[in-house]
Specification:
single chain, 124 residues, alpha/beta, Rossmann fold, 5 strands
C-alpha cells in the first residue's frame, strides 16, 4: 500500500522548532526535516516531485532561507512556502510576500495560526 499523504519540507536550524513542527504535522504529512539551508536545497532536489509545501526559517547556517526560496522558485514557481522567522519584517521579507504562494509568520507563533496559514497556502 502506498502512502498518499503529502510531503512537507521543514528547514530550521533550531532543533526544538524543527522537532515541534515535525511532531505537529507528522500525522497529516510525510516530513523531511532539515537542519540548515544547504540540507534543505539537497533534500528539495532529491524529493522535488513529492514535496507539497515548505516551511523554512530565514536565518540559517550554510545557506540562508532566502537562498533556499530562490532555489525552490527556480524549479517550482508556485510551491507553497511558509517562512517562519524571529526577525522583524524587512524589505527582504516584504518582497518575498509579494509572491501569492509565500506567507511570513513571526516567531514566536501560535500553532493554530501556523496550521491555518499552511492550510490556506495549500488551498491556493
Amino acid at each position: 500500500m502506498t502512502d498518499s499523504r503529502k510531503t512537507l519540507l521543514i528547514a530550521d536550524d533550531e532543533e526544538l522548532i524543527r522537532d515541534l513542527l515535525s511532531d505537529i504535522f507528522s500525522e497529516q504529512y510525510n516530513i523531511i526535516a532539515c537542519k540548515d539551508g544547504a540540507e534543505a536545497i539537497k533534500s528539495f532536489d532529491e524529493h522535488r516531485s513529492t514535496i507539497s509545501a515548505v516551511i523554512t526559517d530565514l536565518v540559517m547556517p550554510k545557506v540562508s532561507g532566502d537562498k533556499v526560496i530562490q532555489h525552490i522558485r527556480t524549479h517550482s514557481p508556485s510551491l507553497p512556502i511558509l517562512i517562519i522567522t524571529g526577525y522583524e519584517r524587512d524589505t527582504n521579507t516584504m518582497s518575498l510576500q509579494q509572491d501569492a504562494n509565500i506567507q511570513v509568520l513571526q516567531k514566536p507563533f501560535r500553532i493554530d495560526k501556523l496550521q491555518s496559514l499552511l492550510n490556506d497556502l495549500l488551498k491556493r
